[in-house]
From TrEMBL:
UniProt KW Membrane keyword: yes
Topology of the protein relative to the lipid bilayer: Single-pass membrane protein
The keyword Cell division belongs to this UniProt entry's keyword annotation: no
Start and end residues of each General secretion pathway GspH domain: 50-165
Keyword line: Cell inner membrane, Cell membrane, Membrane, Methylation, Transmembrane, Transmembrane helix
Protein name per Swiss-Prot or TrEMBL: Type II secretion system protein H
Subcellular compartments: Cell inner membrane
Protein source organism: Halomonas citrativorans
Transmembrane segments: 12-35
Pfam families given in the database record: GspH, N_methyl
Gene3D superfamilies on file: minor pseudopilin epsh domain
């Protein structure tokens, strides 16, 4: 009992090897074409996350100074969180005093973890002190946030802190 090829319904016939290879080649070309877009997306996401982290830390420090009627310090933390460091890409800590050294754990209000994939630089002081009025008097600063990878043309961001204590996003830095 032999069956002819034409006796089988057409929906039971599979793909040919040529059709399968063409689909795999097209899928491979699509993947190769889209990988740089995904890398740029990751870089933009890292820059945005860092801007949000800095704005949140600045806002928390300012509002805490106002509500608790005392000086509050925001600075990058050392590994043991006992003093302020210089690298704003590190963890950030909000401290309930005007201190940069000898910080006790009970004086730390909040710690913000670092963001991977970005470099953060800041002009001016290594800390920001908010007064009970919410001013960052004498601490006018600009944060430059740049992606660590330079193979794509992802722009960075700038965050400007006024002496009144408010932060705003500005044009991207030229140095990225």
């Amino acid at each position: 009992m032999t069956h002819k090829h034409s006796e089988y319904p057409t929906y039971l016939q599979g793909f040919t090897l040529i059709e399968l290879l063409i689909v795999l080649i097209l899928a491979g070309m699509l993947a190769v074409w889209s990988i740089p877009s995904f890398q740029s997306l990751n870089e933009r996401t890292a820059v945005t996350s860092e801007v949000n982290r800095l704005q949140t830390a600045l806002t928390l420090a300012r509002s805490t100074a106002i509500t608790q009627h005392r000086d509050i310090t925001l600075c990058p933390a050392t590994a043991d969180r006992s003093a302020c460091a210089r690298d704003w890409g590190n963890e950030l800590m909000v401290v309930s005093a005007d201190k940069t050294r000898g910080i006790h754990k009970d004086e730390i209000i909040r710690v913000f973890p670092s963001t991977n994939g970005v470099n953060v630089s800041k002009n001016g002081h290594t800390r920001i002190k908010y007064t009970p009025l919410g001013h960052a008097t004498g601490f006018n600063s600009t944060f430059s946030i740049c992606p660590t990878s330079t193979h794509n043309s992802t722009a960075g961001a700038s965050l400007v802190l006024s002496t009144l204590g408010r932060a705003r996003v500005s044009k991207p830095p030229d140095s990225c």
